[in-house]
């Protein structure tokens, strides 16, 4: 079986464990060393446990049941002390196990009729668990075909236990991913609220602009003044990905490669000399470029092409994170909230958005899997994944493929950008208020919000570990960030002022710190 199959298998195992309690991952090892993954229920009988390659039980001969479904007394000899492969269906797991045990079998391996995993269960109120004294394992159809191969198949089975060092690698990856998220929020907020000496012109008829009258340069600023509309648009986009994933994912991948490359040029160009001479001029095309522009463009194209070409490689996460960081910084610098009030409304809408698509949608899907998890995991047939997450692989690979492939800690870009935009607005408000306080020491909105964001990430990780199920990050981040702003505002005596702050009372964003004329803004809030 290939690595991709194993990853799909192990993901299915863990999803089954989320939906159905009492399941434990188990490894069935053939004499030649090949592994077949399965689930078993220790309430029947416990298997030996192992956290590594060491085998915790002896190899036993595998025989195929006769009749195949084991719903009647087994016919023939040769079952004594052996693992018996039976077919799922026609009777309960307890009945199958009882017939195998009476024939002398030491282990029941139930082959599912589909390539999915289920937990073997019995009726506890009728005492069925007490009537079975041998372990019962369920493997999927592909695993059953592997076990049928060969004339003299010998195997052993054990419950695979996650070793402590594997958990350390997971926690380290979570910390690194969280630090990247915090770093992007901090850097993005600083870049978005500092005066610009030179900003690349990006005119667009679909955005509202602030213009520096001295420089004549225009920075495209998209005002997010309709939070409810944004909520609806994001919901439609997510549903499109859910329904048409295999098609839409390719559009997202290409858009990411182009957009992230352009973002890299946009961000790094701000650190070049604004008065550098043009070394490339094409009048007919209206192209003028400095040496730095050429170098940055070449770098962006190289990184984007490399990532696109090798996005399925084990090391592609490095390039994806580099490009993704610049994309998030660009978005934080380009999108603006017109007021703190609108920011709170937007965060509240997306707070409900995350909860609905993670916890409520499983009630309506045929598989019981949430829309958000399905989109994050990928489509039913496509091997492509959305490149919209910070990804940090775990330090160590698990000792068995049945614990999953080399996993990764992930944070969605939206879980960084959305709180980041709110923190940008808080920092802008703080900078304006600082001028009026004449250096008076007061608690910082910016520092408080960044700490709140970090606490939200920590709570997300803790909830993920305790609940052992997918967590919508904004469920924890939004209250932490908003509450931090409320606490700081209360200490500064500015609660009413913070809530009524808006673009009509302009704050020092990247445009209006240079006394640009702000565009009129209307909002739902």
UniProtKB/TrEMBL annotation:
- What molecular functions are annotated in GO for this chain? aspartic endopeptidase activity, intramembrane cleaving
Asked if Transmembrane is a keyword of the record, the answer is yes
Q: Which GO terms describe its cellular component?
A: cytoplasmic side of endoplasmic reticulum membrane; Golgi-associated vesicle membrane; lumenal side of endoplasmic reticulum membrane; lysosomal membrane
Show the stretches that span the lipid bilayer: 12-30, 172-192, 228-245, 251-268, 289-308, 314-332, 344-364, 403-424, 445-467, 473-490
Chain spans, region Disordered: 504-525
The way this protein sits in the membrane is described as: Multi-pass membrane protein
Which keywords does the record carry?
Hydrolase, Membrane, Transmembrane, Transmembrane helix
Report the residue ranges that make up the PA domain in this protein. 69-145
Chief site of localization: membrane
Q: According to the lineage, what is the superkingdom?
A: Eukaryota
Q: Which InterPro entries match?
A: PA_domain, Peptidase_A22B_SPP, Preselin/SPP
Subcellular localization is given as: Endomembrane system
Protein's UniProt keywords contain Transmembrane: yes
- Give one GO biological process term: membrane protein proteolysis
Q: Which family does the entry's similarity section mention?
A: Belongs to the peptidase A22B family.
Q: Which protein is depicted?
A: PA domain-containing protein
What is the species of this protein? Rhodosorus marinus
């Amino acid at each position: 079986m290939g690595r991709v199959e194993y990853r799909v298998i192990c993901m299915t195992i863990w999803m089954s464990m989320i939906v159905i309690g009492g399941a434990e991952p188990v490894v069935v090892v053939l004499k030649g060393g090949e592994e077949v993954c399965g689930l078993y229920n220790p309430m029947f009988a416990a298997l030996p446990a192992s956290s590594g390659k060491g085998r915790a039980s002896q190899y036993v001969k595998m025989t195929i049941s006769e009749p195949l479904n084991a719903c009647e007394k087994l016919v023939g000899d040769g079952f004594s002390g052996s693992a018996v492969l039976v077919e799922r269906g026609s009777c309960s797991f307890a009945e199958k196990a009882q017939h195998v045990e009476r024939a002398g079998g030491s282990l029941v391996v139930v082959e599912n009729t589909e390539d999915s995993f289920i937990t073997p269960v019995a009726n506890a109120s009728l005492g069925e668990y007490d009537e079975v004294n041998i372990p019962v394992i369920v493997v999927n159809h592909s695993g059953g075909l592997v076990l049928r191969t060969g004339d003299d198949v010998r195997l052993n089975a054990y419950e695979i236990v996650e070793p402590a060092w594997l958990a350390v690698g997971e926690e380290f990856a979570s910390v690194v991913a969280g630090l990247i998220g915090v770093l992007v929020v901090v850097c993005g907020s600083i870049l978005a609220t500092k005066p610009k000496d030179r900003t690349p012109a990006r005119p667009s008829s679909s955005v509202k602009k602030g213009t520096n009258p001295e420089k004549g340069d225009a920075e495209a600023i998209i005002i997010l003044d309709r939070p409810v509309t944004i909520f609806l648009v994001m919901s439609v986009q997510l549903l499109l990905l859910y329904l048409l994933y295999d098609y839409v994912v390719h559009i997202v991948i290409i858009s990411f490669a182009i957009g992230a490359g352009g973002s890299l040029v946009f961000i790094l160009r701000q650190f070049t000399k604004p008065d550098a001479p043009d070394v490339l001029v094409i009048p007919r095309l209206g192209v003028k470029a400095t040496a730095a522009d050429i170098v940055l463009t070449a770098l962006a194209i190289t990184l984007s092409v490399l990532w696109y070409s090798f996005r399925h490689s084990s090391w592609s996460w490095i390039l994806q994170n580099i490009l993704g960081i610049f994309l998030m910084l660009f978005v934080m610098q380009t999108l603006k909230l017109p007021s703190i009030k609108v920011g709170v409304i937007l965060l509240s809408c997306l707070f409900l958005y995350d909860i609905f698509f993670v916890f409520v949608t499983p009630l309506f899907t045929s598989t019981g899997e949430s829309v958000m998890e399905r989109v994050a995991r990928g489509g039913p047939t496509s091997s492509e994944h959305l490149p919209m997450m910070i990804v940090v692989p775990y330090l160590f690979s698990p000792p068995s493929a049945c614990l999953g492939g080399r996993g990764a800690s992930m944070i969605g870009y939206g879980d960084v950008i959305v709180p980041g935009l709110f923190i940008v607005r808080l920092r802008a408000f703080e900078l304006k208020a600082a001028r009026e306080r004449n250096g008076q020491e007061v608690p910082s909105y910016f520092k408080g919000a960044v700490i709140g964001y970090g606490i939200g990430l920590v709570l997300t990780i803790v909830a993920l570990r305790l609940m052992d199920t997918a967590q919508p990050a904004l469920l924890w981040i939004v209250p932490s960030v908003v509450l931090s702003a409320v606490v700081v505002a209360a200490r500064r005596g500015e609660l009413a002022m913070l809530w009524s702050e808006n673009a009509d009372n302009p704050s020092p964003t990247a445009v209006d710190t240079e006394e640009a004329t702000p565009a009129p803004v209307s909002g739902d809030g």
